[in-house]
Amino acid sequence: MLTSVDIEFFAVIAESSSLAAAARRLDVTPPAVSQRLRQLESRMGVRLVDRSSKQLNLTPEGELLAARGAGVLSDIEVISAALSKSRNSVSGPLRVAAPFGFGRAHVAPAMAAMKQRFPDVELVLNLFDNPLGSVRSDSWDVLVHLGAPPDSTFRLRRLAPNRRLLCAAPDYLERHGEPLHPDDLRRHVCGVIREDEKDVSLWRFTLARSESPTVRIRPAFASNDGDVVTAWALAGLGIVERSEWAVADDLRTGRLIEVLPDWRLADADVVALLGPREGRAVRVDHFVDTLREALTPTPWRS
Questions:
Q1: Distance of CA 234 to the CA centre of its chain
Q2: Radius of gyration of the chain from Cα atoms?
Q3: Which helix (H) or strand (E) holds 228?
Q4: Could you tell me which residues come within 8 angstroms of residue 259 by beta carbon, excluding any fewer than 6 positions away?
Q5: How far is CA 204 from CA 172, 198, 217, in A?
Q6: Residue 208 has pLDDT above 60, yes or no
Q7: What pTM did the predictor assign?
Q8: Distance between CA 72 and CA 239 in Å, rounded?
Q9: How far apart are CA 37 and CA 288, in angstroms?
């Protein structure tokens, strides 16, 4: 007979890249995970994981259990949340996905504040280069995203304003001069962050309705880590596009200088993506409120 504990166990496997990764998440040994999986398959009478591949691939039966099981776990959470609300308590797992840098700087402290306020909440924070393209939608309760989401599948709560801007070290601008128009960037050394599949070498600007140039740069340096690209800019390597939140202190102290300040790149506001309200636990709304309070007033504009 299938139990909710079995479903929770298999959900971890379905969300992991390997059985070893699932073992780390479950805090047990890989052999223990393999044995428990075999026992589950034996009781169900079906194969749930394809062992012929080096990667962890689910069989059609495994995909069915993962999909239907996610719905069952969601229903259990909704019932639990309703019961908790009736006794005025907040508990259960809070699963949050966020970008690496922003997650460390702002999401993790907000989750700590949430835990202090509601000790029975269980915190799970997973950080990614590009959370929206890296994790299944049934593996998180809140996904923190910077910029406009690619679709409107999820409910969206705006948390804080955030601009994208170009910046460079004073040393670089002294040696190469300061661009006065976006077209001048073609003659400059530029760097980019490659966090997802976006065309990061195409920079789109706006100044007025009459002029909205698009500039194709040839990146001289790139990384999937924003802190690395910022460090290279601070070292005088060239001009980079960064989020306002990430370089506000460097701009304030003069370690970096904003380039083309009269021109605007697309904003990258901080938003929280959520599931439908009817399937959402009360702790999720409490956390979003906690995070929004932590970002008000906007820390990088204070």
A1: 25
A2: 23
A3: helix 226-234
A4: 165, 166, 167, 168, 173, 178, 179, 239
A5: 23, 13, 11
A6: no
A7: 0.71
A8: 50
A9: 35
